[in-house]
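Example record used in the benchmark description.
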Amino acid sequence: MNTSIVTSQTTKSELPLSIKGNKPVNQKVHKMLLICGILASLLYIAMNIFIPFFYEGYNWVSQTVSELSAVDAPTRSLWLLLGILYSLLIAAFGWGVLQSAGRNRSLRIAGILLIISGLIGLTWSPMHKREVLAAGGGTE
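Model output (structure tokens):
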């Protein structure tokens, strides 16, 4: 009596990912899109830790993170550059989530919302520095 167990010889790298319409997706690209979510999170943490060092007098306890990108802030250009990268990483991650969703409606919605969030992040309007706001300016 032969009681051997038959196992599949197919490896993960041979299995094509599929999205609507069963179109194969390059797994390396898909994996990189999902890694964008990790990179975006690490980038945002790094932005919040390191960019304040370039803003003399910035106090993370009493000031908001938005002040790092405020009009005339010394860190504005650096924050905007990295903020664009962050937004693109979030949108790419959303695309990866959407590709992973299959028939899972909640995951599809999450992917779409991430893409929208990333794209809206590209249109972020800056605030004015608190000194300008306190003097009644910056409301035009």
